[in-house]
Every structure is written in C-alpha cells, then in structure tokens.
Design goal:
Elements: H1 2-12, E1 17-18, E2 26-27, E3 37-43, E4 46-51, E5 56-59, E6 67-68, E7 80-85, E8 93-97, E9 100-105, E10 108-111, E11 124-130, E12 135-140, E13 144-148, E14 157-158, E15 170-177, E16 181-186, E17 189-193, E18 201-202, E19 214-218, E20 221-224, E21 227-231, E22 240-244, E23 249-255, E24 260-265, E25 269-273, E26 278-281, E27 292-298, E28 301-306, E29 310-315, H2 316-320, E30 334-335, E31 346-353, E32 357-365, E33 370-379, E34 382-389, E35 396-404, E36 407-415
Parallel strand pairs: 1-26
Antiparallel strand pairs: 2-29, 3-4, 4-5, 5-6, 7-8, 8-9, 9-10, 11-12, 12-13, 13-14, 15-16, 16-17, 17-18, 19-20, 20-21, 21-22, 23-24, 24-25, 25-26, 27-28, 28-29, 30-31, 31-34, 32-33, 32-35, 35-36
C-alpha cells in the first residue's frame, strides 16, 4: 500500500493533463428556494440540496426542478452545515445542522436520533458509529469531539488533547481501522487518535501555513486551504504527502470503483485518478456564486453547490474528454485496499492485470479458512473490481488474496456490524 501511493505521487507530475476548456456548467436552480448551498447528496434517485437558511430541497429529475423537502419541519434547524451521503450505496444520508443532526434512510421517515439531546454542543458537523464494542463519535462546530458508549442514557464525554480555539472546529474524519487510527481534520491542523477517539495528538507532519486549515477530509485526502494532501500510510500515520501543492479545496465527489476523484473549492477544480495516476484541471466555466461548498457524482453528471449561486451540473464526459482514456493497460499487477474498510456488509476489491492471466481472488477468515471465492478464471489484461457481500458472516478480521501468474498478494479487511 505504501509503495503504491508513493509511486502515485511520483508520477502525478508526469501524467498531468488539462481537460478541455469548452466544458460548460449549467445552473439548475428552478424552484430552489435558497441559493446558499452547504451540501448536495443523493438517496436513491432523489438529489438533495442543503442550504444555510432554508433547510433542504429535493429533486427527482436530476436537478431540473426542486421542491421544498417535506420533512424540513422535523429538522433540528433550517441552518444546514452539510449533507453526507453514502457514496457506495446511495441509500442513506446524514444531515448536519445547527442544534443537531438527522438521518434519512428510506423507507424509514426522517429520524432525529435521541442521543443528540444529551450533547452539550449540538452544532454537529460529523458523526460516526462503530461496533464491537459500540461507540458513537461526533465532531462539532467550535466544540471539539465527543464520544459515548452509553446506548441508554447517552452520556457523552469530551475527547481530550484537542486545544481550545480553531482546533475545536471539526471538519473531517479519516479512518480505515478505527481500532488502530482515527484522524480528525480541523480548522487548525490534523489530530490522530489510537484509542477509538478518546484522546488525540497532533498529526501535522507535512502540513504548514494555510495547509493547516483543513476544510474537509475525504477518503485518504485532506482538503486544505493550500493544497490536497494524502495519508499514504493507513491504517497508521507517518506524514502528509502533497498531491496538489496549491489551491483552496473544500469538497469532493468520487467514483470509488474507478478511482476517480473530483475536487472543488475556491475558484479551483482538480481531478485525480488513483488507477491511471493522472491529475487534470477541471474547467469551471458557467459557475458563479463564490466557493464551491459541495459536490456529488450521480449517474452521468457531476453536481456542485456554491455559497451564493445555487447548484450547477455538467456531464462527466465533458470533464474527461482530452484526458488519457482509462482503458490503458496497467504496467504491473496490483491489489488495492478494499473500500470501505471497515465495512458492513459489502465492500469492493479492485485489482489490475498487465497481461492475460489465470486469476484467483479468495477471502479467508482469521484462521485461514476459505470463506468466499470471488474470482477463479482466466482474465484479460485490465483493471477490475469485485464486490464482496459478507452478510452471513460474523464481525471480525478477514484476509483477501489475489493470485495471478507468479504474482500473489494478501491484504486485511475488517467486517464491523
């Protein structure tokens, strides 16, 4: 994993490409009651836009028109800090707001968790729930991080080690194995925890100046006020490595399976493909309204929300024309880390073949017993992704092994229920 990502950073400068200048974004603000967008996400086939003053609006026709969300009256506040959708399944969404949060997971009605009421600081910006043992962690706006393992009365404890001031403004969480490492991005640097979020220490090696102002964390990336940085050593932390050394980045949309990431911010747009090792500038023609606060990839389009200009849409094809095609053959065998990890109950495993090979991809439990065969066939050169559903298996550590020709590699994955 470390070698792969170091190689990625090395070749970023070699394979940089510029997307075509004719790509034009279209405003899609018909019946959108506020242009002050703080989040865009989707659940099923419905797209949602959160605003800083009028709650949430929804669209069932790809953003061509919007309606006031019917459950706005149930929200803790109409001041929405952000929307966090499940980028893998698209089946649920966390809503972060002044005075609390809510969960949308159809067919269940909008749900305001009871544990929110016991928090001293209810301006929630992030939420994570872990199992074995159960623990809830929330990040707040200017209040720091809190955790609880109490599922009855929900008594919260403030995490220690994060100093007063801007560091209390929690902007993002990163974790591949929460029992080993959890990283929090704040307005004043990054912090790491190795005890499931109870205590924190600084994790700023590689960051300085405005790069300490972390606006968001997405996957392995820290989006800062001065560049994009990667943590290449998950599930541990050694230092941050720059992928893009300048730019005020705020939001990201991605296709996890293809490895394509689209980053946006204050007059900046950049795409990074972790499979083809390319960086490309994203044209922003047609976008107005200040900082791009949020982004969503859905279907054949990318949607972005802006501070004061509403929502904009562009076909993905308009951004990828002119960039080297993804069907270039890999140069080496590679087995990627599954995503998400930990997972419940499905995860995706990607691998690359530089030549035609007989491929075996199997999953084993901690005792070495085979529990699943994902691939056992001859395959042409290329990059592939396979989904594993562990619905009938207990929580625990598992291993997946790729064998192709003389190549063999094994990686760990964690099922948490």
């Amino acid at each position: 994993m470390k070698v792969l990502f170091r190689f990625i950073v090395l070749v970023f400068s070699i394979f940089t490409a510029i997307t075509p200048l004719f790509a034009q974004w279209t405003p899609i603000n018909n019946n959108l009651g506020s242009l002050n967008i703080t989040g865009v996400a989707r659940v099923g086939t419905t797209i949602y836009a959160g605003t800083s003053d009028k709650g949430i609006f929804s669209s069932t026709n790809n953003g061509d028109s919007w309606s006031t969300y019917s459950e706005n009256g149930t929200l803790p506040s109409l001041n929405i800090f952000g929307l966090e959708g499940d980028v893998i399944t698209g089946q649920n969404m966390f809503i972060y707001a002044q005075n609390g949060m809510a969960l949308l997971q159809p067919p269940i009605a909008l749900y305001v968790p009871p544990f929110v009421q016991t928090l001293a600081n209810k301006d929630i910006t992030l939420y994570r729930q872990y199992n074995n043992p159960s623990r809830r962690i929330v990040g707040t706006k200017n209040g720091g991080i809190f955790f609880t393992e109490d599922n009855t009365t929900f008594i919260w404890t403030e995490a220690t080690g994060i100093p007063a001031g801007a560091s209390k403004n929690i902007r993002g969480f990163m974790s591949q194995d929460v029992s080993v490492l959890l990283i929090a991005g704040t307005e004043n640097g990054a912090f790491k925890s190795t005890d499931r979020g109870s205590t924190w220490t600084e994790a700023n090696t590689g960051l300085s100046g405005d790069a300490l102002k972390i606006n968001n964390i997405f996957s392995i990336f820290a989006l800062t006020s001065n560049g994009l940085y990667l943590n290449l050593s998950l599930p541990t932390f050694t230092s941050w490595t720059p992928a893009v050394a300048t730019g005020d980045f705020r939001s990201c949309a991605s296709d996890m399976i293809s490895g394509q990431y689209y980053f946006f911010g204050n007059n900046v747009g950049t795409s990074i493909n972790l499979n083809t090792f390319q960086i490309a500038t994203i044209p922003l023609g047609g976008i107005s309204g200040g900082v791009i606060t949020s982004a969503l990839l859905y279907g054949t389009n990318i949607f972005v929300g802006t501070e004061t200009g509403g929502v904009f849409r562009v076909p993905i094809s308009a951004l990828t024309t002119g960039v080297n095609e993804r069907n270039e053959l890999p140069n080496d065998f590679n087995l990627s880390q599954n995503y998400p990890n930990p997972f419940n109950p499905t995860t995706t495993i990607s691998f690359s073949l530089p030549s035609k090979s007989y491929v075996s991809l199997k999953v084993f439990d901690a005792l070495g017993r085979e529990v699943s065969v994902l691939v056992s066939d001859e395959m042409a050169a290329g990059t592939y992704s396979k989904q594993w559903n562990a619905n009938n298996l207990p929580s625990g550590v598992y291993f997946y092994r790729l064998q192709a020709g003389t190549f063999s590699e094994t990686k760990k994955l964690i099922l948490l229920r």
